[in-house]
Write a structure and sequence with these properties.
single chain; alpha/beta; MutS, DNA mismatch repair protein, domain I; three-stranded mixed β-sheet; 5 helices; 5 strands; disordered N terminus
Length: 132
Amino acid sequence: MRTPLIFILHLSSCTGRSWCDIFVLYSFEWAMRHTTKPKRLYIDFDGFFASCEEQADPGLHGRPVGVIPFAGARNSCVIAANAAAKKFGVKTGTPIAQAHRLCPRITFTPQRPDLYVRIHHRISCRSTSSAR
């Protein structure tokens, strides 16, 4: 069996535990047990901004969420959608009015770049420490 030098992990929204715990306990450690250490690791999070919002507000778990550029945005578009919103056809770039027609129960939340950066750094730190 050839050992891959590059891993690409695609992580969807998860509920209950934080991404960091899910990432370290399952994805990365599994890869490290079953192969030699990768040269590169690429991580793709499904609807990262929307999933971060779910992690920050447990009340959003399981509900359709669309991240928008700023509070009160009406003539803009969704910049991230979680899996629940995607089931209704809402995706990145969907105009807000159309997203509301596709999914009347969607919760729109304004973007919080600082939150996304903090979560990114937590994941990066944990994955780096697990690789050693």
